[in-house]
Structure formats: C-alpha cells, structure tokens
Amino acid sequence: MNNDLPHTALVTGASRGLGLALAHRLASVGWNLIIDARGESALEAARAGLSEQTRVTAIPGDVTDEKHRRKLAGAAHEAGGLDALVNNASVLGPSPQPSLLDYPLDVLEEVYLTNTISPLAVIQAVRDELNPGARIINITSDAAVEPYEGWGGYGSSKAALEQLSNILAAENPDLRVYHVDPGDMRTQMHQEAFPDEDISDRPLPEESVPGLMRLLNGDLPSGRYQARNLIEPDSSPKELRELRVALTIDDFDGAAAFYRDELGLTVVKEWSESQGRGLILEAGPATIELVDHSQAAYIDEIEAGERISGPVRLAFEVPDIGAAADALQNRGAKALGGSVETPWGDLNRRLRTAEGLQITLYQSQDSNADGKEMA
Ligand SMILES: NC(=O)c1ccc[n+]([C@@H]2O[C@H](COP(=O)([O-])OP(=O)(O)OC[C@H]3O[C@@H](n4cnc5c(N)ncnc54)[C@H](OP(=O)(O)O)[C@@H]3O)[C@@H](O)[C@H]2O)c1
Hints:
375 residues; alpha/beta; 2,3-Dihydroxybiphenyl 1,2-Dioxygenase, domain 1; 2 domains; 14 strands; 21% strand; elongated; disordered C terminus; binds NADP nicotinamide-adenine-dinucleotide phosphate
C-alpha cells in the first residue's frame, strides 16, 4: 500500500453494527470510504456522521444484486482504487433459527446468496480496482467452525465463506485475504439470534475493530483470524513513551549536583515557581527490574554484605565505577561497600544518598546470555 496517499476502503453493510464501527475508526484515521446497506435511511444517517471526518460515498443497495455491485465497482474506480474491501454485510436467516431438518431450502439459498456468494461476487466486481497490497477481509463467525444446534444455515454459509477465502488466497498469493471471526457482539443481528435474551453483556462491535485495523495496516499472512485476539500494536502498552521516577528530596541543590554534575545526567527541564522547584534529568534508556525478596537479599549481600535495600533501589551503569563512586561520595553519598565483582561479571558498588536512597553503580564487563544487565 502506498502510505503517502489517502486509503480507500469499501465496507459492505456499514449502516450499523460492526460495519459502522469499523467505518468510524477508518474515517478517524483518514481513510476514504465507500459503504452500502439495503436500508436507505440508516445508511444516510451513517454517511452523514462519517462525512464529518472523511470523504464517504454511500450507495444504498443489496450485495446480492449485480447492478448494485457494479455501482460499488464504479465508485471504487472513481476513488482511485481500493486499498481494502471488507465483506461484512450478512444475514442471520430466520429467527428463531430452524434446525437443519426443517430448514426451508429457499431461505437457505437466500442466506447462502448473501453470506457466501455475494462476498465473492463483490470481489469479482472490484478485482480490477484493487490497488497493489490491497487487503480483503471476509467477516465470518465462530459458527463457521462450531456445530452449534440451530446454526446450520448461517454457520454453513460462513464455513463456505472461510474455505472460499482460503482458496482465493492460495490462488492469489499477491493478495492478502483474511477471514475473520469478530466474536460475539452486541448488535441487531446478535439480538435477532437470541430474541428473548438480554445481550447487554456482549462486547460492543467497537471491541472487534482494533483487530481488523491490525489486519488492514499490518502485513500478516492470509488466513483465519479472531479479531479480538489480534491486538493492534499502537493500542498495547508499547505506547508507553517514557519512564519517569519522581524523587522527593530535602536538599534540592545537593541532589541536583549529585545526579546532574556527578552522574552526568542531562537536564531536560528545570523550573522554580512559587509552588516549588523541579528538575527533569535525562537518564538514558530506562528499565524496571522486578525482583523477589530472595533476589533482593542476594544482591544486597553481594554489594553491601547485609539485607539493606527497601522497595526501591536505583542502579546506574557508569563507564568508570571508581571515579563515579568518588564523585558521589564527595556529594554526600555514603559507601556501603567497595567495588565487587558480581557472579555475572559486572563491577558493582552500593551507596546510600543523603536522602537515604539505595544506589547501585555498575560497570558492565559483558552482557549476560539474554543480553540483559543485572544490577
Ligand atoms: N453480532 C455478532 O455477534 C456476530 C458474531 C459473529 C459474526 N458476526 C458477523 O459480523 C458481521 C456484522 O454483523 P453485525 O452483527 O454488525 O450485523 P448487523 O447489526 O445486522 O449489521 C449488518 C449490516 O449489513 C447490512 N446488510 C445486511 N444484508 C445486506 C445486504 N444483502 N446487502 C447490503 N447490506 C446488507 C445491514 O443493513 P441492511 O439490513 O439495511 O441491509 C447492516 O448495515 C456479519 O458478517 C456477521 O455475520 C456477527
């Protein structure tokens, strides 16, 4: 996909439920949209809401109708091609759902036509409009693989869509074809499937959207996915930008000199206001080391010869441990032991600051097998 140009997605069945939730997310990140649904007024309401954020072409119609599919392809052409096609429009069939032995075959044909044949028909209609790297997502269901009683019509239509997606991917290795189970969602279709149940405990369709976005933005291989098992990288804790440890100290200037002048940390921000003084120091790459009491006691014993640290100990890697320790002691730190060679090959030295904080200085000899330093 060319990331410099706005992307365009065709999302079928986007007047409500999952299709609408996905359309809103795509609009919020600048994708242009082509959407459809049979019900005109709900589709128009969806278009009006989405067009506050992006360019939207809404085409009312039925995916089972060839003329309608040609209109979708025409809109895709006008938009400069598609970067994503999401075959989401689908029907449940009768509600309550009949068992297979009683399933009216003319209705089964309608279900297959909408849920299985039309997704392929839409793909065929827009095949020449797919931009290089375009993604195709066919929305399926857990009912495609689980033998739930009463789900024979809908479930088998989704099972066929899954195998159709598999083979389409095998026949077109240059395409990314995903068939995705979105999980149970609190939507009109779900309420139709469980007409007498309170479905307010089911997740909203928005919760299945990040997984779909990951497929659209990432480069995962073609295949079957469960949307809620796909965590989009930018919604995970990897969003964390910085670790900041805030220390409250009695001797502000002494501590500033200690960390800034002796340890050589760079000042990022400094303020002195009526409400108080503060200093933010760049401390290079930061890590949090979690240890149990027994590991803490082991390190204390190596560095200080006794169990001495509390819940927090700061550790700084320095290039010359002797020089750094001398400088910190000149700034009021108390040595709690000499430099010791640790079992993992570093030189470590324990000090206590004037504020009572335990500090480990370490001079790395070598990384351990994991490439991590133990301090
Ligand atoms: N909800 C769940 O728990 C669940 C679980 C597993 C899988 N899924 C799958 O997730 C997808 C979205 O389901 P949902 O729960 O969001 O359903 P929904 O609330 O019923 O929404 C379906 C959307 O598709 C449109 N649509 C239906 N038939 C169409 C047709 N023939 N042509 C064009 N548009 C059509 C509907 O509008 P009109 O009716 O106005 O056409 C509506 O916009 C479906 O593929 C469904 O099978 C849902």
